[in-house]
Amino acid sequence: GENVEQHPSTLSVQEGDSAVIKCTYSDSASNYFPWYKQELGKRPQLIIDIRSNVGEKKDQRIAVTLNKTAKHFSLHITETQPEDSAVYFCAASIGSGSEKLVFGKGTKLTVNP
Amino acid sequence: GAVVSQHPSRVICKSGTSVKIECRSLDFQATTMFWYRQFPKQSLMLMATSNEGSKATYEQGVEKDKFLINHASLTLSTLTVTSAHPEDSSFYICSASRTKAFFGQGTRLTVV
After folding, report:
1. What tens digit of pLDDT does each residue of A56-99 get?
2. Residue B106 and residue B93 in contact, taking contact as beta carbons nearer than 8 Å
3. CA–CA separation, A66 vs A84, rounded Å?
4. Would you call A41 and B44 a contact, using CB atoms and an 8 Å cutoff?
């Protein structure tokens, strides 16, 4: 079945710096890759996603890149702010066109003022 | 984005009792919903797929007789934790998709 690896598990940056979180997946049929932000005790919030027909997507300070050949995708946050501090999860769809997701283990991002 | 509502947000129950958690899609119909469990400082683990009008599909290692799922309408799925034990204490979250997956607010279950 699908396996998603996420690195690093923790990431600490200074306010204003960039943060990069990387994920790899195993199922070449996966075609949908969302990223979620989860604050303590709250639900995961979708922050950005990408489908396999594009290589990059950007939304203000957040961007995601996808390399289907290498089966990895990354989240990039620029000009980080303290409110970006949270746990970030990547996910990959199980097979093509599936609504089922497999999640990475998460990255705890801390942005220091 | 789409709205998914989960109730209750917190529940404490005695060991051996059953607890029902509701997941509703408020502004769209969902033929499929998903139930996840999340232990502290860990990721979301898919437990089962809830299918409207048919039996749920459980992931490997998840006891279907312990975690009963009912999806009786296009906007409601319920998860019942039967004969709960302290090891069932966890954060349970549902999701429903409207091209993208949206999550309920989660239920913190504590079994004492």
Report:
1. 999 999 999 999 999 999 999 999 999 999 999 999 998 766 68
2. yes
3. 22
4. no
